[in-house]
């Protein structure tokens, strides 16, 4: 039996940074994102005698995975099985699997593929089990990558931190569907990609920042404001809270030990110019950055032509365009 699924990345408005349990990816706080409609990652999961993975890039060519990448995928499979056992749903789940991962995410796009990969895998793993809830699929995704839990849903979704150490204690839920608000994400990848620490290693450093506790205390207020902004389609409110939270996460990163500086001079220049442009032309556009120098310009359709023109005028940058998408699904 072979099950195929497809998924996409998401862009966070309230950022996930820091865990209460690193191994199980139980987050320290809630977060919230918009699922994108592209680029896609497709997976095929088959019943197999032993765990095996093949990965293919955009050109269809096979990519050799590192030992670390294979270990992470295998650990995810074992945790997924353990979770399904814990809810009494592992009866029809394979003892081992072979995976085929086909990523359509161009390397130059600077979008982490882990959210798309692990949500697609969760979707396919869920296909071996009868009547798994969407919440359970989001737990399966989270066990591989925290932010992947949010890509299980289309539109806008919250990653609910929950409490305790149970495997299923943190999950994602949908705030509004992809038909609720047509937002775009125009992604500008600066030419000089900074060498960086991966998110998994970064999360483990969050608590070393003296600003982390204050961040945790303020997230419930921000999460609430962000949910309201989305429900009310209030772009001004969304922009205010998303930009505040992004800045705050990057301050935590910078003040951790060792210090993490994901943003480059180009990032700061682009953000400054977007601020000038939107003030001049009254555009509904916001800037947000994850663990890298890439700038996401999330905008309403009315601002799209001006934002696209700005993005494509950036010398030496790669531009990628996506809009709100429908989340992971079986194919
Ligand atoms: C900065 O979900 O990539 O993008 O669980 O180790 O895969 P892992 O971490 P990941 O962390 C996301 C960090 C972020 C913010 C966000 O997307 O919320």
What report would you give on this structure?
There is one protein chain. This protein is an alpha+beta fold. It is 36% helix and 24% strand. It has a 6-stranded mixed sheet. Strands 2-5-10-11 form a 4-stranded antiparallel sheet. A hairpin with a 6-residue loop joins β13 and β14. α2 crosses α3. The longest helix has 21 residues. The chain is globular. It starts with a strand and ends with a strand. The mean pLDDT is 96. The site of ligand DP6 has 16 residues, from α5.
Tags for this model:
binds ligand DP6; 6-stranded mixed β-sheet; 36% helix; globular; 331 residues; 4-stranded antiparallel β-sheet; 16 strands; 9 helices
Task: Give the topology, please.
Blueprint lengths: L1 E6 L2 E5 L4 E3 L4 E2 L3 E5 L5 E7 L4 E5 L5 E2 L3 H20 L10 E7 L10 H13 L7 H9 L5 H4 L4 E5 L10 E6 L6 E7 L9 H5 L8 H21 L2 H20 L10 H17 L3 E4 L6 E6 L3 H9 L5 E6 L5 E2 L1
Parallel strand pairs: 7-9
Antiparallel strand pairs: 1-6, 1-16, 2-5, 3-4, 5-10, 6-9, 7-8, 10-11, 12-14, 12-15, 13-14
Helix pairs in contact: 2-3, 6-7
This protein binds ligand DP6.
Question: Treating each run of at least 4 consecutive H or I residues as one helix, how many helices?
Answer: 9
Helix share bin? 25-40%
Q: Runs with pLDDT <50, length 5+?
A: none
* Cα radius of gyration in angstroms: 19 Å
Q: What is the overall pLDDT average?
A: 96
Per DSSP E runs of 2 or more residues, the count of β-strands stands at: 16
Strand-residue fraction? 15-25%
Largest β sheet strand count, sense and barrel closure: 6 strands, mixed
For the largest beta sheet, what order do the strands appear in spatially? 8-7-9-6-1-16
Succession of helices and strands:
EEEEEEEEHEHHHEEEHHHHEEHEE
Q: Terminal Cα separation, in Å?
A: 14 Å
């Amino acid at each position: 039996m072979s099950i195929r699924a497809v998924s996409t990345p998401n862009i966070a408005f309230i950022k996930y940074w820091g865990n209460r349990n690193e191994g199980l990816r139980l987050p320290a706080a809630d977060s919230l994102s918009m699922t994108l409609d592209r680029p896609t990652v497709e997976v095929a999961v088959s019943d197999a005698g032993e765990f095996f993975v093949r990965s293919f890039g955009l050109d269809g060519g096979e990519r050799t995975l590192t030992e670390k990448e294979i270990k992470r995928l295998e650990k995810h499979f074992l945790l997924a099985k353990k979770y399904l056992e814990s809810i009494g749903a592992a009866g029809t789940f394979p003892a081992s699997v072979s995976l085929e991962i086909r990523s359509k995410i161009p390397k130059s796009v600077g979008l982490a593929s882990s959210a798309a990969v692990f949500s697609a895998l969760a979707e396919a793993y869920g296909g071996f089990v009868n009547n798994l809830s969407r919440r359970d699929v989001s737990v399966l995704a989270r066990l591989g990558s925290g932010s992947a839990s949010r890509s299980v849903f289309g539109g806008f979704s919250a990653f609910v931190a929950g409490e305790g150490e149970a495997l299923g204690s943190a999950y994602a839920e949908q705030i509004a569907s992809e038909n609720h608000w047509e937002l775009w994400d125009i992604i500008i990848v600066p030419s000089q990609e900074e060498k960086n620490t991966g998110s998994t290693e970064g999360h483990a450093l969050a608590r070393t920042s003296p600003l982390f506790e204050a961040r945790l205390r303020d997230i419930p207020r921000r999460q609430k404001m962000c949910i309201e902004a989305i429900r009310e389609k209030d772009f001004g409110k969304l922009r205010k809270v998303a930009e505040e939270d992004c800045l705050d996460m990057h301050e935590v990163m910078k003040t951790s030990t060792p210090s993490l500086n994901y943003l480059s001079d180009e990032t700061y220049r682009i953000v400054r110019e977007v601020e000038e442009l939107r003030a001049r032309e009254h555009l509904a556009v916001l800037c947000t950055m994850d663990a890298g120098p890439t700038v996401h310009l999330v905008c309403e359709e009315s601002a799209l032509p001006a934002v696209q023109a700005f993005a494509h005028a950036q010398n030496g940058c790669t531009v990628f365009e996506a809009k709100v998408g429908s989340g992971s699904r079986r194919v």
